[in-house]
Write a structure and sequence with these properties.
The complex is a heterodimer of chains A (about 325) and B (about 425).
Chain A lengths: L14 E7 L2 E6 L3 E3 L5 E3 L1 E4 L2 E4 L11 E4 L2 E6 L3 H7 L9 H10 L7 E5 L5 H10 L4 E6 L2 H13 L6 E5 L2 H4 L11 E4 L8 H7 L5 E7 L2 H13 L3 E22 L14 H8 L1 E9 L10 E7 L18
Parallel strand pairs in A: 9-10, 9-12, 10-11, 12-13
Antiparallel strand pairs in A: 1-2, 1-8, 3-4, 5-6, 7-8, 13-16, 14-15, 14-16
Chain B lengths: L14 E6 L2 E6 L5 E4 L2 E4 L11 E6 L6 E6 L33 H10 L3 H10 L9 H15 L2 E5 L3 H11 L9 H10 L7 E6 L5 H10 L6 E6 L7 H6 L3 H4 L2 E5 H10 L3 H15 L1 H4 L13 H15 L1 E7 L4 H8 L3 E11 L3 H12 L3 E15 L6 E2 L8 E7 L3
Parallel strand pairs in B: 4-6, 8-9, 8-11, 9-10, 11-12
Antiparallel strand pairs in B: 1-2, 1-7, 3-4, 5-6, 5-7, 12-15, 13-14, 13-15
The chains are: A alpha/beta (about 325), B alpha/beta (about 425).
The structure holds S-adenosylmethionine.
S-adenosylmethionine (SAM) binds next to helix 3, strand 10 and helix 5 of chain A.
């Protein structure tokens, strides 16, 4: 229940983020018992590279404090959507924070917005959607994979977010988002293999006063088909982009400096040890080093606006993007 | 869902984003008033009472040749009439020189424009008087028309400001005025700082024209419990973007705008208000002379001035500590962060933006040396747009580079 609102201490059943190092971050449940692979209830113990942690010991601890492990220590943090994205168990490909940030921003979500998402997948993006629209907004998330839908629903309840989200098990390309959402939605998000098939349903769901849509696709062919469909259905401000993040490691570097001046003079002219020392001088500088390898592609983000009904019929595109 | 009719009505006093092709400009509407759009002087009176997203056509004013008036477009059949263009060449082999192929002079074009601003008509003339147009490929013809259309485009729309529209507008007009914050930067500052409807958030901003405070207040939302303490270095804070958002009063008052120096002094010294008042103001003026010029001298009434009430309110929140700290500063961030970190709760996020990397490298090392900061990350983004057209999909030819973001988590120890 630890995702809704800022919390000071860990309660029984909370999902807690265990931070060891920048690349060793885990989420665990603060509870005494767990069900093991054989279906038997056992004591819940989390194994870390620095030793074991009894999950029940977390209860009552302050978020942001240190916990001892048998061979070291870690810190416990209250989960945020960003930390959750880093630690959740992948049931599908997921969307990461740089793309998520852009999606939330471009869909113009704020508390009170009604947003539709498909598919639910692993719920990485859903958590960020919920944070953006609560307390009086709502997320409707659709997936045609029954088990994924069910796990997601349990997870939202477990995280204390159930009241802000409705999880639907449905094929949105075939059946749309449902009558009950017609004309009440502010924004639609699609992460589907055939997003263009869902675009007509998005038009139905969006408010008469208009709204925003986003489609995330790894392949450019999907983008092309989606853009054609968006254009056909009268969307405006159609824009495709990609965002890639580089994380740097800041380090002080030392590099040797060569001074060859002494070579210009005969040996007898200078006292040789002085010159030798100078030759092996070191320069020190602070720098930020990108990783050796990093993702070079996540997906293309296509955004568009559906204008209010009173301006949909005019075929004048005011927002012509500057193309060369 | 019915649309509340007056929610979309354009009213005098509204801030609107006026959009004409790729061009956008923020404008405060008056019952009677003009606005310079590109090189056109446009009388805006006719938009009042109409709706946002309505399309208006710029028409030559009957009274004044140099003025344009706006007319609401009800039916666009004329506007979308396709240009009749003769068949295009297959390549550019017959085009020898790029320049001087237009036989219309600048005066001719001005005359056309003065008789009637109609981009189709003007482009028609331009095309007919171009010696090379018919030799161009279909692609270059299209490009030519698009370019001319942009110049003579006579339609515009008014939009209600949103953070997205404002961020793009500011960035296009002059990135310096918002410290170079690009949309991807802004979007990530908000997520990494975990800004949402709850909590007390703390911002120090010294130069985004109010964009940061507007974006944070927008994420905090209307009818919610979240508050923002916005610290700024001047006498008056920059708040163009905030004002443009026209948040409801209830939401506006949850943003406390306080001067950095006076709120910190208030927090640590808590001295008698009367003593503090004069010197503080003088001091602020010298800190930021540019903003002082726009300031009215506050009347010294016996009751406490507004800024002092806000200071005290902010101090009460600072004593209980905040749930996020965002710094978007012109100044070097290390000292600022050092001073502001005590106001951040344990287990909460800190986010600092800088257009250049070096100040954040220093900050990275400083934070690393502290025992109460973990998960320090320094990042920047590669962002680019794509042209998506059948058989002609490719990244946009131009791109720009964004800034750097440092994020970290403060511990409870
Ligand atoms: C890549 S995943 C989404 C990941 C999600 N955005 C996240 O961040 O965790 C795509 C999901 O779409 C679902 N899906 C595919 N086609 C669908 C359809 N026609 N209707 C509903 N869901 C669909 C799949 O079952 C899958 O779970």
């Amino acid at each position: 229940m630890s995702f809704d609102g800022y919390k000071a201490t860990v309660k029984e059943g909370d999902t807690v983020v265990l931070y060891l190092t920048i690349s060793q971050v885990y989420s665990i449940k603060a509870q005494e018992k767990t069900i093991n692979k054989k279906g038997i209830e056992v004591e819940s113990v989390f194994q870390t590279p620095y030793g074991a942690l009894k999950c029940a010991e977390l209860v009552g601890k302050t978020y942001g404090s240190k916990v001892s492990l048998s061979k070291g220590w870690g810190y416990i943090l209250q989960p945020t959507p960003e930390l959750w994205t880093l630690t959740l168990s992948h049931r599908t490909q997921i969307i990461y924070t740089p793309d998520i940030s852009m999606i939330i921003f471009q869909l113009e979500l704020c508390p009170g917005s009604i947003v539709v998402e498909s598919g639910t997948g692993s719920g990485s993006l859903s958590h960020a959607f919920i944070r953006a629209v609560k307390p009086h907004g709502h997320l409707y998330t659709f997936d045609f994979h029954e088990v994924r839908s069910e796990i997601a629903r349990q997870e939202f309840d477990d995280h204390g977010l159930g009241q802000y989200v409705t999880v639907c098990h449905k094929d949105v390309c075939e059946n749309g988002f449902g009558e009950n959402l017609n004309g009440i939605v502010d924004a639609v998000f699609l992460d589907l293999p055939h997003p263009w098939l869902a675009v007509p349903h998005a038009v139905k769901a969006l408010k008469e006063s208009g709204g925003r849509i986003c489609s995330f696709s790894p392949c450019i062919e999907q983008v092309q088909k989606t853009c054609l469909e968006l254009t056909r259905l009268g969307f405006q401000e159609i824009q495709t982009m990609e965002v890639l993040q580089t994380q740097y490691n800041v380090q002080t570097k030392h590099i040797p400096v060569k001074d060859l001046d002494f070579l210009k003079m005969a040996k007898s002219e200078n006292k040789s040890d002085g010159a030798e020392k100078k030759e092996s001088e070191v320069a020190k500088f602070l720098t930020a080093i990108p990783p050796m390898q990093q993702p070079g592609h996540t997906g293309y983000l296509t955004f568009a606006s559906l204008y209010p009904i009173w301006s949909r019929k005019l075929g004048i595109s005011i927002d012509e993007n500057e193309t060369d | 869902m019915e649309i509340e009719s007056n929610e979309f009505e354009i009213k005098a006093g509204d801030f609107a984003i006026v959009q004409r092709q790729g061009y956008t400009k923020l404008h405060k509407l008056k019952p009677h008033g003009n606005m310079l759009i590109g090189k056109f002087n446009v009388e805006m009176d006719n938009v009042i009472g109409q709706r946002y997203f309505d399309t208006f056509q710029m028409k030559n004013s009957p009274e004044n040749k140099k003025m344009f008036i706006l007319e609401k477009v009800e039916d666009s059949t004329n506007a979308t009439d396709a240009l009749n263009i003769e068949k295009s060449g297959t390549d550019n082999r017959n085009i020898t020189s790029q320049g001087d192929t237009q036989s219309l002079t600048k005066e001719d074009i001005d005359k056309l424009q003065d008789s009637e601003l109609n981009s189709n008509a003007i482009i028609y003339e331009l095309v007919n008087n171009s010696k090379t147009f018919n030799m161009k490929t279909g692609y270059s013809q299209e490009k030519y028309i698009r370019k001319k259309e942009k110049k003579y485009f006579e339609y515009l729309q008014l939009r209600k400001p949103t953070i997205r529209l404002l961020t793009n507008m500011f960035y296009r007009q002059d990135p310096v005025k918002t410290l170079g914050i690009r949309i991807d930067d802004l979007s990530q500052i908000l997520t990494y700082a975990n800004i949402h409807s709850e909590g007390n958030h703390l911002l120090y901003d010294s130069g985004t024209s109010g964009l940061m405070m507007a974006a944070i207040m927008n994420a905090i939302g209307a009818r919610t419990s979240g508050t923002l303490i916005h610290m700024h270095p001047g006498n008056q804070c920059q708040k163009n973007a905030f004002v443009a958002m026209q948040f409801p009063e209830e939401q506006k008052v949850r943003c406390l705008n306080v001067n950095l120096y006076s709120v910190i002094r208030c927090f640590y010294q808590d001295t008698a208000k009367e003593e503090n008042y004069e010197p503080t103001r003088k001091r602020q003026k010298t800190e930021d002379p540019s903003s002082a010029s726009t300031t009215k001298v506050e009347e010294e009434a016996p009751k406490q001035p507004q800024w002092q009430l806000e200071n005290e309110k902010a101090c009460r929140i600072l004593k209980t500590k905040c749930d996020s700290l965002v710094v978007t500063s012109k100044e070097h961030p290390v000292n600022l962060v050092k001073e502001l970190l005590p106001f951040l709760n344990g287990g909460r996020q800190l986010v600092v933006f800088s257009l250049t990397r070096e100040p954040l490298q220093d900050l990275f090392l400083y934070l690393k040396s502290r025992l109460d900061i973990v998960a320090i990350k320094l990042s920047n983004n590669f962002m680019r747009y794509y042209q998506v057209l059948p058989e002609r999909t490719h990244p946009e030819v131009n791109m720009n580079s964004g800034g750097f973001i440092l994020s970290a988590v403060k511990l409870n120890c």
